[in-house]
Each structure stands twice: as structure tokens, then as C-alpha cells.
Amino acid sequence: MIPEGEHDVTSTVEKAAFQAETKEILDLVIHSLYTHPAIFLRELISNASDALDKLRLETLRRTGTPIDDGLLRIRLEADPARRLFRVVDTGIGMSRQEVIDNIGTIARSGTRRFLEALRESGEAPAAAPELIGQFGVGFYSSFIVADLVTLETRRAGEPGATRWTSDGKGEYTIEEIERAAPGTTVTLHLRSPEPGDEDFQDFTQEAVLRDVVKRYSDFIEYPVEMEVGEGDGRRLAVLNSRKPLWTRPKDEIAESEHSEFYRHLTHDWHDPLETIHFRAEGALEYTALLYVPKERPLDVFDPHRAASRVQLYVKRVFVMANCEDLVPPWLRFVPGVVDSADLPLNISRETLQHNRQMGQIRKRLTTKVIETLAARRDAKRADYREFWRSFGPVVKEGIYYDDEKRTAIAELALFASTAGEADTTLAEYVGRMPVKQKEIYVLLAPALETARRSPHLEAYRARGYEVLFLTDPVDEFVLQRLTEYGGRRIRQIDKGEADLDAEGEEAKRAARATELAPLFESIRKELADHVESVRSSARLTESPACLVSGEHDLSPQMRRLLSEGGRDLPAPKRILELNVAHPLVERLRALNENDADHARFADCCELLLGQALVAEGSPPPNPARFARLVVALLAGE
Length: 637
Ligand code: ADP
Description:
By secondary structure, the chain is of the alpha+beta class. Helix content is 39%, strand content 20%. A hairpin with a 2-residue loop joins strand 12 and strand 13. The site of adenosine-5'-diphosphate has 15 residues, from helix 2 and helix 3.
């Protein structure tokens, strides 16, 4: 039973409105989750459990001695007659300001982006659970089942207490109250069933509560208690089995239990893609339970987001969330728990940084994740492709930064290539290389379509060499560090001289180039503002011309990226390569040799440059003028 008017010593009651965004989220949560009403209980128990973690940690930090575990409890109370339901915890509680910051607003950095994502997706709120799931519904899920919610709380170590009340319709009140002990009580005034609602779940019924706790919160460390039975047989029962999931034998854990634990950690609506659970024994003892999500969390590129989602426990006691020493930053999308048997309980972030064991754990976890992903890549390519689409850009950070594991991480990458529609890995590419091919050929391009049509590919195609397409903006950075694979140089085909001439061909091409030297020089003069030199090309078989960069120049894509980022770069001068076998070259030579045709020659040079730029996905220097020249050409002027 729930006693009446427990904390009725009120002072001034203040009314306040929710932040506009909070109101919007609230409506969404209620409307999109009303088909999963039991979620609210998972969220409230999860919050209570977090509050107990915090109290335990704070007590240890302050006093140096662990808190008595008997003081850490979660209690459910139900009053069917008055349709009241309560979750009471003896956790850290909140100060008045914390209530305002945490409950009256949604302070999480993801909120704004969550709403934007929702608006952009153009989804009706009813289709929003996926997005809400990624964002986490938290406390607000109470309004799925309740038309009035009261939260009473007292922060540990502070004398006063606070009551927050709202009907979830846009306003809340906040007032000072008295409360005997620190902790939090959330009281829900449950809605009554609509007539004819067959699926109505009554959260004042013991059987319903037992079932929901078992399903969603069984692994919660603290006892979730409730009074059960009738009359003299009334007693306190613990509804959860309380065994932290990671301490149980691997093969005894059901997939559904992993799913629930994963949700508890992440608020993600989906099931995890991978579960990695292992125990390290020997000099260094710990248990790790990590998950790989199916979808990229919204905030994975948020610079304010912690660079880790792994929690550190010491002998089953929660010590730290977001422990950045346990995984490298590129694995920040991997949530999980590491429970160490060797670290001191009161270890701080600062001491962790210099702890040698942490380095070893980090290495091992990184290897495990790489191995797990590699296994999926080999066994379930379709699934893996989805993973790569979501997480590729994050994993590529690992290729860039991780000197030790670079090759193994690079092997996780999937690339489009000239070999066909299917994507390929570096290892598969190398496996297909003809014996005479010495290097790995790649082409950076702003988009796949542009890459597939690039004139740079012609000679490689003609010789049966495959070229990998790199179209992600971060790829250029990646290539700065990933310069070879399996002992073979990775070569960008639009940089430097192409080394493709067959025997005898080179001499022929050189002779022709000498013959054409005066033409090359005239073209260079015409295009002096844009090109550094003109030479004959070993890469072209069909197109008349292409532009290449010097061996160490930035690519046009990188230049664009940097100048969009506000960097003022001098215009690059590139090398114009001509296909000396192309009939156009003969025509240019004829024009060049006749002084009367000089104006026409100049226009042709400009067109040649413009089309070479367009072919690689770059704009011509003066697009309007380029368009005019093309029209003039078409008109036969
Ligand atoms: P989330 O738990 O995802 O952060 P919530 O909306 O559930 O979002 O809660 C917001 C914040 O309110 C929590 O992060 C926590 O700081 C605080 N809070 C909620 N419930 C409790 C509680 N029972 N005890 C102490 N603090 C709480």
C-alpha cells in the first residue's frame, strides 16, 4: 500500500514550462511507444540503478570505504485501488538544480540532432520508434502509462528535498519538500484502461511487474524488491536474479538477455550485431562483454561525445562510465563492460592513464573486435556490407591512427572497384592481381559515378589491371598512412607518371613526344595559368587528355575539402597528359602550325583543359566561358 500525503510539507510551488524541444520529444515518445508501455519500467529501474552506482562511487571516493551494500535498494510499490505505482531508490538523488537540468529539460547533446533527423526523415511520429530507440527515452517514458508523474528526490549529502510534478502536457511544478533519507521516489498515476482495450497491461499487478522485471531488468545488480502475498503471508520479494550478465558462463546466456543488457547500456532499439564475451586469465584477470551495434549511433561524430562507451567495473562494482583507456577512439561505437579483478576500486581517470594493465586490455579488446568483424566479413558478407556502410568512416580512423594494427584494420575495409559491381577487400584484390602487376592501384574520386568514368582508368583496364575506388572524404587521409599492403605499394593512378608502357612501346611514345614537343610547348603557354607542363600519357587509350597531380600534391578533392573548410590554397598547377595516338592531337598540331588559326587553337586548348576537368569531377576554371566555347563548337563556328 502507498501511504497518503507522505511529504506534504510544502513551501512555494513554482510553475515552469518545458523547453520547446522537450515538449516535442515528449509527444513523440508517448505517441510512438504507446504500443510498448512496459518500456517505462525498464527506464525507471535503469535510472534507479545508475543512481545507486553513483552513490556507491561517491561514498567510496569521499570516505575511502565501500558503502554497505544493504543500503542500496530499489523498491516497487503498487496501489491497485488508487491506480498508483512507485519506484523508490536509495541512490544519489538530485538537487533542485539537477532536477531542473535533468528532468525539466532534455540536456543531452543529441536532442537537437535527434529532432532534426526525425524531421529530415519525414517520418510520421508513429514511425519514430527506431529513432527514439537510438536516442533513449528515459524518464519521459513514464508518460506512456501515466497522466500525472511526481518525482521526489533528495541529493545525498544535502538537507533539503525537491518535488517535481507534471502531467506531461507542457508544464511542470517544482517545490521544496522534506524527505527523511536521500534517494528518489517516482510516483505514477496510471491511466485506466480504455473500454475494449484487450491488451491493457495493469502495472499495479504483481504478475505483470514480475514478468516485466524478469524480461527487461533481470541483470540489474541491485535487488528490485516488492511486497507480495496477501494478509499474514505478506513479505518482501526480490524480483530480479541480480547476476551481472558478464559473470555468467557464456553458453548459458540467451540472446534475448544480451539484447536487453545491450539496450540497458545503449538505449538502442535494435539488437546488437555482434556479442563479444570473454574472460582473460593469468597475470591479468578480467571479463569483457562488448557489443557491436547494427546502426551507427547518431552522435558518433559528435566531438563532445566521450571517446568510449565501455564501462569499467572492478570485482563487479561499477567504477566508471565511458572509460577511454579501455578502447581506442575508433572503437567508440562499441558499448560494453570490462570487469577487472586486479585494479584498485578507487582508481581514478588520472591513474588509469598510466596503468600498464590498461594498455594490455585495450590491445586485447581491439584484437577481439577486429577478429570478430573479420569473421563476419568472411562468413556473412551481406550483413557485413551493412555494417561497413554504417561504420566504415569510423573504422577508417583506426587505419589512420593505429600504427600497430593498421594492416588488420585495413583488411576490414570494403572498396568498389573496376572488377565489377561487388565490393572487394584488399586481400581479395591482391588475390586477383595478374603476376605482372606490381602495385595496388587506387583512384580517389568525389563520387563512384565519376570514378567509374574516369579517363585515368583506360590504360589500366586495357591491361587487365583492377583499380580500387576510394570515394569517402576521409580516404585521402587514410592513404597518407596506408601506403602499402602485403608488401605492395598502394599507388594513386592520377598522380605521378604511369608506369604502364609495354616493352618497345615506351621508346615509340618517347619518339612521338619529341616530335610533338613544339605542340606541347604551345599548349603549355596557352594554359600557363592552370598547367605546369604538358606531356604524353601512358594512361590513356580512348580519351584525348587527362590531368594528373605531382607525386606529392594534394588531390583536387582534398583541395576542395580544405578550401571549403576556409583554408586559402594557391590554385594548383597540374600536368596535362595527352594521348598522342588520338586524332585530336594531329588536329591541334595542324592548327598550331598555321598562324592564321591561332584564335581557334587557343579555344581548343581551353576546351581540352575543361573537358579533362569535367571528366574527373572538377569544375572548369570558368564554367560559363567553357559552356560558351562548347556551344560555339557545336554550332560549327
Ligand atoms: P537518461 O537516463 O537517458 O540520461 P533520463 O531522462 O531517464 O535520461 O534521466 C535524465 C537524468 O536525470 C539522468 O541522467 C539522471 O542524471 C537524472 N535521474 C533520473 N532518474 C534519477 C534517479 N532515480 N535518481 C537520480 N537521478 C536521476
